[in-house]
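W.,

You were right to be curious about this one. When I first looked at the sequence I had no strong expectations either way, so I just let the prediction run and decided to look at it fresh. Below is the sequence, 267 residues in total, followed by the output.
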Amino acid sequence: MQTQAGYLLSDVVSIARQALCAQDWQRLSQSVGTKGERLFDWAILPLATDPYQPAEREFGATRAMLEKMAEREGLSLSITTKSNQVVRDIDLLRRISERSSIMVNMSVTTMRTRLARLLEPRAPRPDLRLEAVRKLREAGISAGVFAMPIVPGLTDREEDLDALARAARDAGAQWFGARVLFLMPSSWKSFIAFLEEKFPRLTGRYREWYRNYGDAPESYRIEIAARVENVRRQYGLRSRPETPAKPSQPAPQLQLAWETGEQRCQI
């Protein structure tokens, strides 16, 4: 279902229950609030879109799914969002962390508020997102910052990356991940139209570099990777979350449904 505040999978609780009840749940291709993606060692939110879209305030789909996950143990959960709404669910994240592995990646493209508003008009201000990281860390939840995407010509200056990494460190982030903008064919037209309206000086570079879609040139990506690594070292940040010990995965308790001959998982 599409709402004015984003996309919502209306049967999210039922799908979450089915996914968590599957004995091979890690290899179950599931959709929870987003489009499907195959799962292996991690249950990953989002699978395609942010699990804390504005619609979450009204519908609570992500919280409903987390409540189901809190009933299980031995899970590995990774949440990536650009919304400070995640702090609403700190109580559930702490419950999950007592029995499973959990981490939160906060996506922040720039600390420049006006630029952030242009690039991410529906997302909370950067300082609010970093405050969410601070609250997560104070609650004992593993959390880091993703500078994704790094937008060529807009968010890639050394001073911008330094300011973002410093803010991540000050908020208690444990890692600082980064990736240069990748443009899918479906997003190319809307993005180049945005540049033509707001930053026309960049359109020539983008047409040459991306040639309608794809990655920036490898030489540029290597240069940016070096810049990012420099600020990581300066502020003592890891490049990625530490991989936790693989959690135990007890088989779900099954109840024999004598009336129908079905087996039901107790969640």
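Here's what jumped out at me. The radius of gyration is 20 Å. And, maybe more interesting for your project: Residues 1-8, 23-41, 246-264 have pLDDT under 50 and may be disordered.

Coffee later to discuss?

I.
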